[in-house]
UniProtKB/TrEMBL annotation:
GO cellular component, one term: cytosol
Enzyme class: isomerase
Top-level taxonomic group: Bacteria
The protein's name: Pseudouridine synthase
Keyword RNA-binding assigned: yes
């Protein structure tokens, strides 16, 4: 990897910023001062320091976001704030993207990464990664509704995979909640599934994706990197 690319990916600024830093003599490789930004290094074996402080290079990032209402699951948008804008203060040096998507008004677990292979495994229909949602709905569900979800529902031009549906207890007597588990991620899928049984989703919140469950200590809008154990579980998919 080029030295300037490593420094840029490690949060030391733009390529222009990094070039000036290198030319100033602030960077050493294995104890030797370097001034050429085009030098190639081995990130895993070469010791790169800035002002004598070692730089720990990280190639891939895996971020858990408790997505808030009102931002979209995209890398760029002309009208709305995106999930990438939301985490830019800490990850502007990384080309993150959302793994799948949540609707603008859907909250909860969203993974952000720059690991394309892992993202593909999590979203590919053939892997059937379960995604669990809690839905505030307009009417109580019935045994027939549960069976309908289990049998698959025709929506637009496709039939959903079998999905699990169950009632959830509610702390508010005027609120009705249900939990649904799906194994794909079509556009507005959960909302359309409830519409097909003459019900309406009033609020939707994702709590898990595969083996990863939303950290209960993350308030809406907060985020953190995955733990080593969470990452190990993901890579077993």
């Amino acid at each position: 990897m080029r030295l300037d690319k490593l420094l840029s990916h490690s949060g030391f600024g733009t390529r222009k910023d990094v070039k000036k830093l290198i030319q100033s003599g602030a960077i050493t490789i294995n104890g030797e001062t370097v001034t050429k930004s085009s030098l190639h290094i081995e990130p895993e074996t070469d010791l790169v320091c800035c002002y004598d402080e070692p730089i720990a290079y990280q190639q891939y990032y895996y971020v858990m976001l408790n997505k808030p209402d009102g931002i979209i699951s995209a890398t760029f948008d002309h009208l709305h704030e995106t999930v990438i804008d939301w985490v830019a203060l800490d990850y502007q040096h990384v080309d993150l993207f959302p793994v799948g998507r949540l609707d603008i008004d859907t909250t909860g677990l969203l993974l952000l990464t720059n690991d394309g292979q892992l993202a593909h495994r999590l979203t590919s229909p053939k892997h059937q990664v379960p995604k669990v949602y809690q839905a505030k709905i307009a009417k109580p569900i019935t045994d027939v509704d549960i069976a309908t979800f289990q049998n698959g529902i025709k929506i637009d031009d496709y039939v959903t995979r079998p999905a699990q549906l169950r009632s959830l207890p509610s702390n508010q007597p005027d609120e009705i909640w249900a939990e649904v588990t799906i194994y794909e991620g079509k556009f507005h899928q959960v909302k359309k599934m409830f519409q097909s049984i003459d019900n309406l989703v009033l609020k939707l919140h994702r709590i898990s994706m595969g083996p990863i469950t939303l950290d209960e200590h993350l308030a809406e809008g907060e985020y953190r990197e995955l733990t080593a154990e969470e990452l190990r579980l993901l890579k077993e998919i």
